[in-house]
Design brief:
alpha/beta, Rossmann fold, 2 domains, seven-stranded parallel sheet, six-stranded parallel sheet, 13 strands, 40% helix
Length: 363
């Protein structure tokens, strides 16, 4: 039986109010399932930033008190018909573990799934051994290894993050972007898409770039607050060669002018920004944090997290051999086929169908 023949209702929930990587994956999943004809509702805090990115979805408010989440979800469930509840982010996962356990004890035809996309071990292992959540969908093998599933190892499934075509389709031409940033066509552009969190390793990248900077080379940092980094760039004597672009949804506009993408993170599982760069056919030098080596396997393009000298050496080595750089770009583009929205939807539909089969096989 095909998944679309048995899925009547899918409820997604996130306890986060921002548009983080995990939140965006929830959004891509919700939109894709809806486009395939599933009946999808998305529960989030009332002021969630995600809502502005996909206002067409059926958004539902999570009550401010977590004790009321169960009732809110139950009101959205079909009467006596099977449904899926899929949670994103820590508080939502913990709450669903206990709600799902209760629903199973009461015999409700509800199958619960949780997403996890970070590589630090959970501080509370109980949600991972409670029977309420049937499957933990994680975005890397590195993430899976951190889960305290104990005897429930089969509950962990690796489902890679996806990248919608809209995220890797530029809206402006390369010449427009270069003109905006004051970069000539001949310039070598080393670029990164990140945020100001210390775990993203931006300081490591800036210091590494300063070691290899030369005339005609530009460092472009997208998604950052310039006031946080201007002082360091001036101190290192590279201010004139650095372009800082504030947070934008049009990341592809800037990726298209990069010669080399760099991911300097100190901790990652499966970073959306790296996947987007790979989907645009960019070569990438990265830290070897978490699940990154599952995407970038060439040791010449990896550096230990936080190691300024090693990152600088990897960047310099990549840029000095344009033939190998082009080969790395081709490998990344080919590997990026794993990150299609269709592949993720197929995988999640198969999981949902498997979980609901006990409720539908006699239906």
């Amino acid at each position: 039986m095909k998944p679309e023949e048995i899925l009547v209702r899918i409820l997604l929930l996130t306890s986060s109010g921002n548009a983080s990587g995990g939140g965006r994956q929830a959004l891509y999943l919700a939109s894709g399932l809806r486009d395939r004809g599933h009946e999808v509702s998305f529960f989030s805090p009332a002021g969630s930033m995600l809502r502005a990115l996909a206002p067409e979805l059926d958004w539902r408010d999570l009550p401010e008190k977590r004790g009321k989440w169960s009732k809110a979800l139950e009101k959205a469930m079909p009467d006596k018909e099977p449904c899926i509840v899929h949670a994103f982010h820590n508080k939502a996962v913990k709450t669903l573990a206990w709600c799902g356990t209760l629903w199973r004890l009461l015999g409700r035809p509800v199958a619960c799934v949780a997403h996890r996309g970070v590589i630090y071990p959970p501080n509370n292992f109980l949600p991972y051994i409670a029977p309420g959540i049937r499957v933990f969908a994680v975005n890397s093998l590195a993430c899976l290894k951190t889960l305290p599933l104990l005897w429930r190892k089969a509950a962990g499934r690796v489902i890679y993050n996806c990248v919608p075509k809209s995220k890797v389709t530029p809206a402006r031409s390369p010449d427009e972007i270069r003109a905006e940033l004051g970069i000539c066509r001949e310039a070598t552009v080393v670029g990164c898409v990140s945020n100001n969190s210390p775990t993203k390793g931006v300081e490591v990248l800036i210091r590494a770039y300063a070691k290899i900077a030369e005339p005609g080379m530009i460092l472009c940092l997208v998604g950052l607050r310039s006031s946080k980094w201007d002082g360091l760039c001036a101190e290192l004597g590279i201010a004139d060669a650095v372009r800082i672009v504030p947070r934008t949804e049009r990341v592809a506009d800037y990726l298209q002018i990069f010669t080399l993408f760099v991911l300097p993170s100190l901790s990652e599982s499966s970073p959306n920004t790296l996947l987007e760069a790979m989907c645009m056919g960019l070569p990438a030098v990265c830290s070897s944090a978490g699940g990154v080596p599952e995407c970038i396997s060439d040791p010449g393009y990896l550096a230990p997290p936080g190691d300024v000298a090693a990152l600088a050496a990897a960047m310099a080595s990549a840029l000095c051999d344009r033939k190998k750089l082009a080969e790395a770009a081709d490998r990344n583009l080919a590997f990026s086929e794993l990150f299609s929205v269709e592949k993720k939807l197929d995988a999640m539909e198969a999981i949902y169908a498997d979980l609901l089969s006990p409720y539908t096989e006699n239906g």
